[in-house]
Known about the structure:
Layout: E1 3-7, E2 10-16, H1 19-27, E3 31-38, E4 41-48, E5 50-52, E6 55-60, H2 65-71, E7 76-86, E8 91-103, H3 107-116, E9 128-143
Antiparallel strand pairs: 1-2, 2-9, 3-4, 3-7, 5-6, 6-9, 7-8, 8-9
Amino acid sequence: xxGDKQTGAGIRRTEELTAAECWxxxxxxxLGRIVFTRMALxxxxxxxxxxxxxxxxxxxxxxxxxxxxxxxxxxTVVCYEADDLDPVGHTGWSVIATGIAQLVRDPAAIAxxxxxxxxxxxxxxxxxxxAVEPQMITGLRISVPTAG
Length: 148
């Protein structure tokens, strides 16, 4: 659903992004937030990521709640959100991917992701790799149309 909103800086326009645009934007940034359930409540953690074959890859450590959740049975349902928003102009984009997070268990894949994805914050040994396979991806762009 697209819409317009009048602001002091002019009219801001919102538009839904296509799935292809969402994946392109998500692959073009490295920082996001993973949202999962912890003790029946929502939990959000900032993480860095890479995108490979429509899968979002993150690293974590043994004590992290997301590792415990992703290791259980068939994984755990998560949302992954990344954005690029201008806090002054209130423009930018946001992408939300919803799907299943599971631990990567293949030693060769783990070693490769550990080489390719350096954690942005060290919280213990970042030995665990989590793959998020979204079943749904949506996005929104907020912009100010240019005159002319």
